Fold Growth hormone-releasing hormone receptor.
Amino acid sequence: ECEYIYQLEKEERHCLQYIAEQGNRSTEGCRPFWDAVACWPHAAVGETVQRACPAVLSLFRNNTGSVSRNCTSGGWSMPFPPYLVACSVDDDIPETEQSYFATVKLIYTVGYSISLVV
């Protein structure tokens, strides 16, 4: 369980570094961003970007799926297919584990929020 959080934080750090390096190079199209699962690069309006399922999800199940987003004049579209479908994420988790993961997510979110303030 800790490996999952570690990998997710590592991927997030890499993405945020990439975003910082990109800066404001282009004001047109869709800006790069981290959606809490994957890093999306800058894209031109009309472009469809595809990302492989995050490696961190392979810790639970071998997946080779991918997720896409369209860059529109209104910004990024929702991912399609949804991560749950594309990456074979098992949503049939026992209630005790759901509670555990909800707690881990809350702790992660609070920690991340504090790191932004400090």
Remarks:
- The chain has one domain: 2-90.
